[in-house]
Design a protein that fits this description.
Elements lengths: L2 E9 L3 H13 L1 H4 L2 E4 L38 H7 L3 H7 L6 H14 L4 E3 L4 E8 L5 E8 L4 E9 L19 E3 L3 H6 L8 E5 L3 H13 L4 E5 L20 H9 L2 H15 L5 H16 L6 E3 L2 E9 L2 E8 L5 E6 L1 E4 L9 H10 L22 E3 L4 H4 L9 H12 L26
Parallel strand pairs: 1-2, 1-6, 2-3, 6-15, 7-14, 8-9, 8-14, 9-10
Antiparallel strand pairs: 4-5, 5-6, 11-12, 12-13
Helix pairs in contact: 1-13
Bound molecules: flavin-adenine dinucleotide.
Length: 439
Amino acid sequence: MTHQDVEILGVGAGPANLALAVALEELAPDLAARTLLVEQSAGTVWQRGLLIPWAQSQVSFLKDLATLRNPCSRFTFVNYLHQTGRLDAFMSLGTFTPYRSEISDYLRWVAEELAQVRIHYNRRAVEVRPVRDAAGRLTHWEAGFADGATARARHLVLGTGRDPRIPEVFRGLPADRVVHSSEYSEQIAALPGDAPRRIAVIGGAQSALEMVQAVREDLPGCEPVLVVRGIGLTPYVSSKFTSRFYSVDASREFYEMDAAARELVLEEMARSNYAGVTPELLDGLYHQMYRDRLAGKDALRILTATEVVAAAHTDGTVVLTLRDRLTGELSELACDRVLLGTGYEPRMPAAVRRLQAALGLAELEVSRNYRVRTAEADIGRLYLQGVNEATHGIADSLLSTMASRAGDIVADLLPQAERPRPAGEGARATPWTSHDCAR
Ligand SMILES: Cc1cc2nc3c(=O)[nH]c(=O)nc-3n(C[C@H](O)[C@H](O)[C@H](O)COP(=O)(O)OP(=O)(O)OC[C@H]3O[C@@H](n4cnc5c(N)ncnc54)[C@H](O)[C@@H]3O)c2cc1C
């Protein structure tokens, strides 16, 4: 069975570890040649579960895998457009936010353009464990994959994303009746043409509304009911003055804050990334409902201030018990599929918690450079990407800081003398209280 000995093993070939691969190739080619990424899917695809044709990225294309660390990189989104012959056409779109499918294709292109870092697809890590020497020092990592292959690595970088949030009340339902947004495209595409079409969509944020819009196109004639806990649907709360909290500098400043300050900032910024919807999608939905009403049909029902308190499955039908949060009244909703737009777990993914247990760490502390603090400083390092919102700020799970984060991790991996100058070092720092627009 295949075995690999490498210096760095990256689990996941999503944007985070691809950004790392790019930074390795540009800053530490020797290390890059001894790096392996493993990806459970057959190829690199961004947001496979909600790759809806009309959905757009919510961050600027300048926050690609390279530009903010190295604008001259050949791995920029602009170079991708140039190479694929769409630079002129993209400019005429007049947008900073490409289609989600175009970002996905950009990631595929980056993966194919890598010259040194290897990627093994269809390889799902099922077990990763720390290995210690006779003195008890952590020396390296061993990984086992679903296809029976194994790898041994000096350092490990987890870039596996966050765990989907499945509220307790839905956990007893048969798996084929409950579709989390991370599986929407695959599951809905797999439905037979004559599948029953009573659809309940749970949630009031972006992914729930995207599924409501998509399911009406994917299953013509379906009757979606949107169940929303809040009293109405609201847009993301953000502005040009708060967008700086998604910057690399802001992430660095956030790391230096004490616990109370971090909590305050995350609380104030929450509505800019969670529990909201893009104004365009909200507007589109309202217009669509208005047109439906003009045509004399109510194709979509929205139940606001409503929570699901129980869910049962009998004879192929799911029955949700709903509670009106304003009156306390209970009612039932029968459906054939439940689509969950319930987001992702804010806590560390289960795989990270298992590693924490294997390392015997009571607390999981992550350094400024995304390294888990263990007794050993130089060997058997573990880096976590995309799951450090609590310590690195609101942008951590997004594309926003990936390019520079990858540079930080590479710098941390290199001996002091070989470290590149951190991106943006020497530039004027903007204090948190400042609201100028100098950058
Ligand atoms: C619908 C949706 C839209 C979004 N839109 C935006 C946006 O517009 N802008 C933005 O900045 N962010 C957006 N995000 C946030 C998104 O999390 C980041 O953009 C980005 O995808 C995070 O990258 P990642 O590499 O950390 O994780 P992921 O993109 O989740 O990639 C993780 C990779 O690891 C693989 N993997 C997982 N477990 C294993 C395993 N055991 N073995 C091998 N491989 C494994 C997965 O298959 C996947 O390819 C969106 C998220 C969602 C859900």
